[in-house]
Amino acid sequence: MIKTKNYDKKQGKISFVTDMSISLANAIRRSLLEIPTLAIDEVEIAQNDSALYDEVLAHRIGLIPIKTEKTIKETKFRLKEAGPKMVYATDLKPSIGTEYKSPIVLLDNEQEIQLTAIARVGRGIEHIKYSPGLMYYKHNVEDSLVNFININEDGKVSYDEKELKEKCNDEQIEKIKKLKEINELVINIESWGQLEVKKIFTEAIDILDENLTELNKAIK
Predict the structure, then answer these.
(1) Residue 174, exposed/middle/buried by CB under 10 A (0-12, 13-18, 19+)?
(2) For 127-159, how does the pLDDT look when each residue is reduced to its tens digit (9 = 90+)?
(3) What is the pLDDT of residues 87-117, one digit of tens each?
(4) CATH superfamily to which 37-129 belongs
(5) CB of 140 within 8 A of CB of 182?
(6) Where are the domains of the chain?
(7) Cα angle value 186/7/134 (rounded, 5°)
(8) How far apart are CA 136 and CA 218, in angstroms?
(9) If you count DSSP H runs as helices and E runs as strands, how many of each does the chain have, helices first?
(10) Are 194 and 65 contacting, i.e. CB atoms less than 8 angstroms apart?
(11) Are the CB atoms for 129 and 62 separated by under 8 Å?
(12) pLDDT of amino acid 14
């Protein structure tokens, strides 16, 4: 159950408090890497006068987040720029669909680059460039206390009395001794730009559900 949430669509972030278990949260986190997204998979460089080797330039372009629609399995981009200027991901034609101005390369006077890039659908379990974002979580407890307590799988809180006396102030000690159970997690999800952040969460859940269904069939 989700109790409170903070959603920042402009920054592509969402955070919420939930009572789901750590094992479930971790399973959803790992499922993010199975969400299909677009990423540049092939680069044909016609001209590169920049300070970067062709391989480095291609690697940087391969990490550019590309807006992903389910109907598109492959798309082609072109880049033709001349210095002096900083070349950004937004200079690719047609538009990559995101507003992130990821820097690609700095061109000096009389330097040019010209290339064609092909983006294909893949998954993060194949290569991290296909990862749609980042999910991380922590126990719903004050940051100033978390390093001085232990929380078991059932949410029970324990601590070392000696460590508290040596490292904590009176206010921290009082708060820690009031803690008995912590059964809530603060979950944070950030999108790299390929997918809307809420969609990342729902698709990860759908993928986990499909995997569990297949596992259930396999063991029957």
Answers:
(1) exposed
(2) 999 999 999 999 999 999 989 999 988 889 999
(3) 999 999 999 998 888 999 999 999 999 999 9
(4) DNA-directed RNA polymerase, insert domain (2.170.120.12)
(5) yes
(6) 2-34+131-219, 37-129
(7) 60
(8) 30
(9) 6, 11
(10) yes
(11) yes
(12) 93
Specify whether the CB–CB gap between 50 and 106 falls below 8 A.
yes
The DSSP element (H or E) to which 143 belongs, if any, is helix 143-146
**Superfamily for domain range 2-34+131-219:** RNA polymerase, RBP11-like subunit (3.30.1360.10)
Tell me the pTM. 0.86
92 close to 220: Cβ distance less than 8 angstroms:
no
The identity of residue 206, as a single letter, is D
The two tokens of residue 69 are: 């629609």
Tokens 């569990």 identify what position? Answer: 212
DSSP 126: T
pLDDT category of residue 8 using cuts at 50, 70 and 90: confident
Question: φ, ψ for residue 149 (rounded to 5)?
Answer: -130, 160
